[in-house]
Amino acid sequence: MSVKYKLIITILISLFTAGQLSAQVLGGTRKDGDQESMFPDFKTVYLQKLIDTADKYYPQIKLRAEQIKIAQTSYSQSKAAWFEGLSVTPSYVYNPSGSINLFNSTGASTNFFNGYQIAFSLSLSSFITRPYITRNAKHNIVVAQMEEETAKLTLRTQVSTLYVQFLQTQSSLRVAAKTASDTKLYLEQVKHDFSLSSPTATTTVYNSALTAYNSSALAKVAAEGAFLTAKLSLEVLVGRRLEDIK
After folding, report:
1. Chain centre distance of CA 63
2. Which residue in 124, 175, 178, 219 is a FRET match for 70, CA 20 to 30 A apart?
């Protein structure tokens, strides 16, 4: 077996026995001394578009916005309820001029309370507790706003994490596809040499090349599955297909 074949086989077996597409270097991948990096694919502007889209369509954010509206409505109702402790009772007193007034010795009627009357009453307990209720209603607005901000920060973190995972699986898929292509070409070359009964194309070489090709094909399928999973997970969180976000 030539030194060339021994070197190629050693590299392939070492690569696939480890069960990795390539060694991870600085968040990217390194293959045959050249770095396959995910950094060029990372776009801050596009990530911000993903976050903005998620803010618009993610149900949890919509829920927080509605809770703020409910808190604001409750606060307005609480302020208006200041008048609940005050009651106004209108009435009409009929006191004819010929009626006898016991407090008038002359027998003539003195009609101090004749006609329409309005009575006012104030609930002291309501007047005391209402400021605290109104203050709590105002605090509920602040709490709802803070919960919304927390939900947005959490969503931003989740979108950023899934975006990085998406880029990582995309980069890994490129490496896996390139490796599968290279091992296929190598296997075809070995088959060609084997058919010509080349002294370098032994059964051991052929079996090693076939094993390397099968491993690379399986690695490619696994990389494709990881890529699709990452893509779908990101799309579910964002609420739109990535192809529709420009």
Report:
1. 13
2. 124
